[in-house]
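Minutes, project check-in

Agenda point 3 was the complex the collaborators sent over. CS summarized: two entities, 382 residues total, and the question is how they sit relative to each other. Sequences were read into the notes so everyone works from the same version.
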Amino acid sequence: MPALKFCRAVELSKAHALMSPGPVVLISSAHGGLRNVMTAAWSMPLDFSPAKVAIVVDRQHFTRELMEKSGEFVLNIPPKSLLDKVMAAGSQSGRGHDKFAACGLEAVAAAKVAAPLVAGCVGWLECRIVPEAHNQQAHDLFIAEVVAAWADERAFHDGCWQPCEESLRPLHYLSGNRFMVMGTIVEAPAA
Amino acid sequence: MPALKFCRAVELSKAHALMSPGPVVLISSAHGGLRNVMTAAWSMPLDFSPAKVAIVVDRQHFTRELMEKSGEFVLNIPPKSLLDKVMAAGSQSGRGHDKFAACGLEAVAAAKVAAPLVAGCVGWLECRIVPEAHNQQAHDLFIAEVVAAWADERAFHDGCWQPCEESLRPLHYLSGNRFMVMGTIVEAPAA
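CS then shared the predicted structure for the full assembly.
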């Protein structure tokens, strides 16, 4: 269990529910004593079992270099309270310095991968890349299996995001420096 | 221009912004005099120019059969006012009957593809599939180029989703019959 307050394990069969609504993520990666973190808006669940995700990471990013060398990464789901740091992590490169420190983000050891978890997030998916040269080279698209998943129990439990105080709600990327905060939850009538 | 009130063209270079926050979509497809529509939660932008999207469509779906035969589909972004119909379109098959009629959804001619637009939605992406046998067969993953894009000007303009009345805001899929309605828009400080 990661050393994060309110952090609880999410069954791998429910990991897709962390990503289904389309939150912005912080991708963290590490290799050879270096680590990095970057903001990414283009990701989605890809399969239920084994749990898989797909994410777009441009070839210029240092995070991608560490992802490709280690074969691993973590998708961290930041809440509104991290808005400024999410913007900062999406606006600068981590080459040559420690972007965690530069952005005021705290790294915590993950359970199954070398990439760290970002403290203060409300969901975490530890991922191992399924190597697919065509997708990575032609589309900057990475496919990965989720090997461990965690959530802040105040924001996500019973396999679903829950109503909670706004500071704990995931962000969704709009454009420029604009984000949407997860809104009200509605239930459709059984069809 | 589609025969839809409040519908305005979205530049293809801005089409990604319709999908970035991760809304649930209705996929519509048509071939050989048949048409269908289904709800899908797993999709994302894939490229800026040419504008591309990625979407997961399981092999059991009739919508997929029409997508593969025609090479085309439309991603329609439904707002909260269509919640009940979105749930209905995700809970039944369109094989053997017209699911538009069964779900109370209205189809309107698209500009560049045979698949229809769904009236009452607030964003539309007309798509042509980039054939990728491995992705379609191994991952149920379709990659497509966006050939036309439209939005309801009350909900999306200037390349970004905008604050608007709740009935016009996109939905995001959570779990079971639960959806999240697009929440408040916040701006991060320039990093």
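Noted in discussion: The first strand of chain B starts at residue 7 and ends at 9.
Follow-up: revisit at the next meeting once the mutant set is ready.
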